[in-house]
Structure formats: structure tokens, C-alpha cells
């Protein structure tokens, strides 16, 4: 019985034992699988790290490729530029005329002279005569092209001669006389050279003065030679004439010394001035753009604030307000072009903004020169009429209408005055300076002279006389009536200070530039000055332009911000804005509170309307 029970127990436990064995096998497989999973995870982590590393290497390679492409493009651009420059130099060298000669007396013939008249020396032995400009039959060199030439001549004295000399002629005018006295019985040797600017057809030669001797020996010691240093073509003169006319009609940035064609070969020019070299100094490239940027920021903010305040304030509808708004608008238009001129300076006079922007920026500059001074003149006349002749002044509406018509006329007149700038300003490539400039290209130098004098007269002298006269009469009237009942800050002393500030600011801002421009016009008219004066004019012009441009930034402070009326309008607008914002905020809060209160009332009504609880 016991054995049977054991057998039955064994039979019943067999499935359990099999399941236990299977479970053990599954545990072993699970452990193996887990180890495999861990290994796979480690491999996957390693693969991910490898992928990230490969991605980083790919990104680095792509970055290097992009850099190489950029470098290659830059090198290609430089190569193209170099090839273009090389072709230009080759073409220029091929087109440049070549002139050179070297000669001597035929010799040896011994003594030459003396003669009882001055005798031209004929050098018949020719070593070199490139360009065939020297005539060996007459001993005369004739300039084939306009340019700068160098000549050299030598002479040997005759043994035991006490008088040896040689003359150098240009167009039959003796420029040099060189000689020596032989007192020791030995040969004497003299030489000299000269650089000349010759026109086409000018002639040079040497001569033996009356009763003088020379020696012609086998050593060929008496010689005459010369060559062309560089030609001066009409294209070069036109290019330089384009860039040196620095007025408001020309560039406010190009700073080159004044030059015209006649100044290069005028007999009155005693000094050798380096007029062909542009005076591009470090301070101009560094500081002028900074000054332009400061003028732009201050002027733009000030004038924009003036326009905003006066247009938003109902009290701006006066003649003075009308002039101020138009003056500020004119200054804003001009100030918009200053960043372009600042970039022009910083890039060493390279204009990269295209032909249309060149004309537009130049036109805005020229327009503001006339418009701003005309508006200031109108304001001066209006204030003169209101203070000196108050009983003659028309009523307010009529004055405002008259001011608007005058402003419209000023805009039209300034636009007409700008037409020469639109016509003559253009983008020109100056090979001699290696820049593409935005400059005035006058068909004739007289245009520059006439426009400069017109600008000096119409754009400065006449308006300044009118402004000074008006404010002088205003000051006289205020001084004559010291107890004039003016309110608050409009006391006579404050008004007088305002008057002095206005006239002084206008004069100091614009007088230096117009004086320098007038000196340039005098140069065009043939008035000579020294090299130092010419260089000083070229160096001071950029500073004078900055000073003139600063008037656009000063105007808002002079005419508005120093006046109590404008400050009151500004404070009034500020209070109005703050009050408006405060009222809107209060209204919003009241609305929110009302909505919340209504909601609470509705909730209370709902609670009160519920039936009583019968469970209590």
C-alpha cells in the first residue's frame, strides 16, 4: 500500500518535475538572452557613438569643403581681378607713346665757335631716336604728345678757352644758361637736366651763345638727350577734373586737391605741386564715417520727434509750425542718404550702390542744401513780421495758408536747383585712382565754376544776409522794449539768446564749406595759390562738410527743444498718452470687476433658488 502510494505520488509529481526542469531551462535561456541583449545594447551604444563620430567628421568635412569653396571663389575673383589689371596694364603700356633720343656732336672736329651770333647746336650723331621726335638736321626736338619730359645736356670746354657755355631753349625761350671759365689750361666739363611739361608741338633745343666756345672730341663729351616720362591724355585730365571739384554738387566724400587742365601747364605755376595724388588720409576714413553716423542718429531722432509732435499737436497749425515741419522733413530726407556716404568714405571712395542710388543720394544732398536754408529764411522773415510789425501781420489762418504756399514754392525751387546734380552726377571708373566713384561729370569746367558761385550766392550769402537782417531787427526791437509783456520763458533776454544761437549756428555750420568752395571756384577762374593752400583746402573740405551736415541735427534743438512751447506740447502729448493708457487700464479693470460681480450675483441667485434639503 505504501509502495503504491509512493508510485502514485511519483506519477503525480512527474509533470511538476518536468515543468521545473523546463522552468530551469527557460531561466537559463532567459539569462543567456539577457546577456545577449546587454551585449547588443553595448554594441548598439558603440555603433551610436561611431555614428556620432562619423557625423561629426562628415560635418567637419562639409565645413572644410565650404571653406575651400569660398577660398577658391575668392582666389578665382582675385585671379580674375589680377588678369583684368594685367590686361589693362598691358593695353595701357601698349597704347602709351614711347619717345626717347640720345645724340652728340659729330666729332672730332676740335673747337666749335666762337660765332658772332647765337648759334643752334646740331647734334648729328644719333644714338637713339625712338619716336623720331628729334630732327638731326636742325638739332630740334618736337614734342609728339602732351606729357612730362626729361632732358639732359653736357658740354666740354675747349682747351685754353676762357669762355664756355650752353643755352637750353623751350619755344625760343632760354630756360637755362650753363657755363664755365677755364683758367688753369685744362678741360672743363658742365652738365644739367630739366623736367618739362610740353604741349604737342612744343620744341626744345640747345645753342652756343655769342663769342663762346665748345669742344667736340672723340670721347663724345658734348651730348643732348631726353625721353618721355609719362603722357598726360585728355582722358586722365577729364578723370581728375571729375573728382577734384569738391562742392555739395560733387561728392561729400571725395577729398582730392583742386586741379584743372590749365593748372598743369600754366607758366604762372612756380611750384611743383603733387596735384595728381589723392589726399586720402587716415582720419578721413576712420573718423568721418563715425561723425556721419552720429549726425544721422541725432538728426534722425530729433527731426522725427519734431515731425511727430508738431503733427499730433493741434497747436502746430501756425506759420512757424508749418515751416518747422517742412524743415524737419527736408532734413530727414537728407539724413537718409548719410549712411551711404559714410560707407563711401569707409570703403575709400568706392561706390557700390549703383548708378540710381548715386544720383538719388547726390540729389537729396543738393536738395537739402537749398531747402533747409530757404525754410530757415522763411521762418526768419515770419518771426520778423510777427515781432517787429505785429500790427501788419495777417490773422492766423491767413498766415498759415501763406506759409503753406511758401513751403510748396520752396520745395519746387529746391527741386529745380537740384536738376544739375541729377544731370551731371554719375558713377565713373577712375583708372588712375583705381576706384569707381560717384562724382559730377561736367561737360565743361565752367559748369562747375558757375554752379559753385550760384550755390555760394543763392544757397548761403543772400539767405544769410536776410536771416541776419531779420534777427538783427528782432533783437533791436526787443532791446528797445525791455518791458514787453511776454509770458514765462519768452522773456527778451531768453529770446535774444535764441536769436544769437540761431544766427551763430547757421554761420558756423555753413560758412567754412562755402568759403572753401569759393576758393575752388577762384582756382577755376585762374587765381593761383600756393601748394600749401591747395593741400589745406583738400584736407579741410571733409571737416567743413561734416560741420555743414551737423546743422540738420542741430536744427531741432535750436528751433524746438530750447523753446518752452514745444516742450509743453511734448509734455502734453506724453500726459495725454499716459492718461489714455491709464484710462484704458482702469476701464479694463472695471469691466473685469463688473463681470466678476455679475457672475457672483448669478451664483448667489442660483443657490437661493435651490429647494430645501428634506434629509435634515
From TrEMBL:
Compartments, as annotated in UniProt: Membrane
Protein's UniProt keywords contain Repeat: no
GO molecular function: C-C chemokine binding; C-C chemokine receptor activity
Domain G-protein coupled receptors family 1 profile intervals: 302-559
One Pfam family matching this protein: C1q
GO biological process: calcium-mediated signaling; immune response; neutrophil chemotaxis; positive regulation of cytosolic calcium ion concentration
Keyword Methyltransferase recorded: no
Domain C1q per the UniProt entry, residue ranges: 94-235
UniProt main location, coarse: membrane
Keywords in alphabetical order: Coiled coil, Disulfide bond, G-protein coupled receptor, Glycoprotein, Membrane, Receptor, Transducer, Transmembrane, Transmembrane helix
Stretches assigned to coiled coil: 23-50
Transmembrane segments: 290-311, 323-342, 362-382, 403-424, 457-474, 495-519, 539-562
Entry GO CC: external side of plasma membrane
Membrane topology: Multi-pass membrane protein
Family from the record: Belongs to the G-protein coupled receptor 1 family.
Protein name: G-protein coupled receptors family 1 profile domain-containing protein
Amino acid at each position: 500500500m505504501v509502495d503504491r502510494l509512493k508510485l502514485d505520488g511519483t506519477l503525480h509529481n512527474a509533470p511538476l518535475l518536468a515543468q521545473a526542469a523546463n522552468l530551469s531551462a527557460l531561466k537559463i535561456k532567459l539569462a543567456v538572452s539577457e546577456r545577449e541583449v546587454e551585449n547588443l545594447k553595448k554594441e548598439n551604444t558603440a555603433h551610436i557613438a561611431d555614428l556620432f563620430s562619423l557625423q561629426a567628421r562628415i560635418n567637419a568635412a562639409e565645413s572644410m569643403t565650404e571653406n575651400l569653396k569660398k577660398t577658391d571663389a575668392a582666389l578665382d575673383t582675385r585671379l580674375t581681378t589680377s588678369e583684368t589689371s594685367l590686361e589693362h596694364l598691358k593695353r595701357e603700356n601698349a597704347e602709351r607713346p614711347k619717345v626717347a633720343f640720345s645724340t652728340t656732336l659729330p666729332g672730332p672736329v676740335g673747337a666749335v665757335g666762337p660765332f658772332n651770333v647765337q648759334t643752334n647746336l646740331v647734334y648729328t650723331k644719333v644714338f637713339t631716336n625712338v619716336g623720331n621726335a628729334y630732327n638731326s638736321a636742325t638739332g630740334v626736338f618736337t614734342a609728339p604728345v602732351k606729357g612730362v619730359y626729361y632732358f639732359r645736356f653736357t658740354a666740354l670746354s675747349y682747351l685754353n678757352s676762357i669762355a664756355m657755355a650752353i643755352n637750353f631753349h623751350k619755344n625760343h625761350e632760354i630756360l637755362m644758361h650753363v657755363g664755365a671759365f677755364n683758367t688753369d689750361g685744362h678741360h672743363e666739363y658742365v652738365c644739367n637736366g630739366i623736367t618739362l611739361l610740353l604741349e604737342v608741338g612744343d620744341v626744345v633745343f640747345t645753342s652756343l651763345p655769342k663769342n663762346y666756345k665748345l669742344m667736340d672730341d672723340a670721347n663724345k663729351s658734348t651730348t643732348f638727350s631726353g625721353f618721355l616720362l609719362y603722357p598726360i591724355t585728355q582722358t586722365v585730365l577729364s578723370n581728375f577734373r571729375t573728382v577734384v571739384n569738391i562742392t555739395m554738387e560733387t561728392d561729400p566724400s571725395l577729398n582730392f586737391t583742386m586741379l584743372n587742365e590749365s593748372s598743369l601747364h600754366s607758366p604762372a605755376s612756380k611750384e611743383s605741386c603733387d596735384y595728381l595724388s589723392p589726399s586720402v588720409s587716415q582720419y578721413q576714413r576712420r573718423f568721418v564715417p563715425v561723425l556721419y553716423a552720429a549726425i544721422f542718429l541725432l538728426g534722425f531722432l530729433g527731426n522725427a520727434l519734431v515731425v511727430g509732435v508738431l503733427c499730433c499737436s493741434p497747436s502746430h497749425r501756425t506759420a512757424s509750425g508749418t515751416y518747422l515741419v517742412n524743415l524737419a522733413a527736408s532734413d530727414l530726407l537728407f539724413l537718409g542718404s548719410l549712411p551711404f556716404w559714410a560707407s563711401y568714405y569707409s570703403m575709400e571712395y568706392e561706390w557700390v550702390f549703383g548708378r540710381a542710388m548715386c544720383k538719388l543720394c547726390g540729389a537729396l544732398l543738393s536738395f537739402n542744401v537749398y531747402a533747409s536754408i530757404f525754410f530757415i529764411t522763411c521762418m526768419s522773415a515770419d518771426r520778423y513780421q510777427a515781432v517787429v510789425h505785429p500790427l501788419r501781420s495777417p490773422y492766423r489762418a491767413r498766415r498759415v495758408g501763406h506759409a503753406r504756399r511758401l513751403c510748396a514754392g520752396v520745395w519746387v525751387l529746391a527741386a529745380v536747383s537740384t536738376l544739375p546734380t541729377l544731370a551731371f552726377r554719375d558713377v565713373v571708373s577712375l583708372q588712375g585712382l583705381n576706384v569707381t566713384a560717384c562724382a559730377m561729370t561736367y561737360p565743361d569746367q565752367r559748369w562747375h565754376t558757375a554752379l559753385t558761385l550760384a550755390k555760394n550766392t543763392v544757397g548761403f550769402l543772400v539767405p544769410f544776409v536776410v536771416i541776419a537782417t531779420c534777427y538783427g531787427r528782432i533783437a533791436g526791437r526787443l532791446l528797445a522794449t525791455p518791458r514787453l509783456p511776454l509770458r514765462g520763458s519768452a522773456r527778451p533776454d531768453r529770446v535774444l539768446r535764441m536769436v544769437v544761437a540761431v544766427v551763430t549756428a547757421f554761420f558756423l555750420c555753413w560758412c567754412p564749406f562755402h568759403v572753401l568752395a569759393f576758393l575752388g571756384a577762384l582756382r577755376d577762374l585762374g587765381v593761383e595759390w600756393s601748394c600749401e593752400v591747395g593741400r589745406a583746402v583738400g584736407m579741410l573740405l571733409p571737416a567743413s562738410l561734416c560741420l555743414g551736415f551737423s546743422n540738420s541735427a542741430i536744427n531741432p534743438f535750436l528751433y524746438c527743444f530750447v523753446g518752452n512751447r514745444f516742450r509743453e506740447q511734448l509734455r502734453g502729448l506724453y500726459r495725454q498718452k499716459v492718461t489714455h493708457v491709464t484710462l484704458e487700464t482702469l476701464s479694463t479693470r472695471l469691466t473685469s470687476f463688473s463681470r466678476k460681480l455679475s457672475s457672483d450675483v448669478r451664483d448667489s441667485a442660483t443657490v437661493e433658488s435651490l429647494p430645501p434639503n428634506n434629509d435634515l
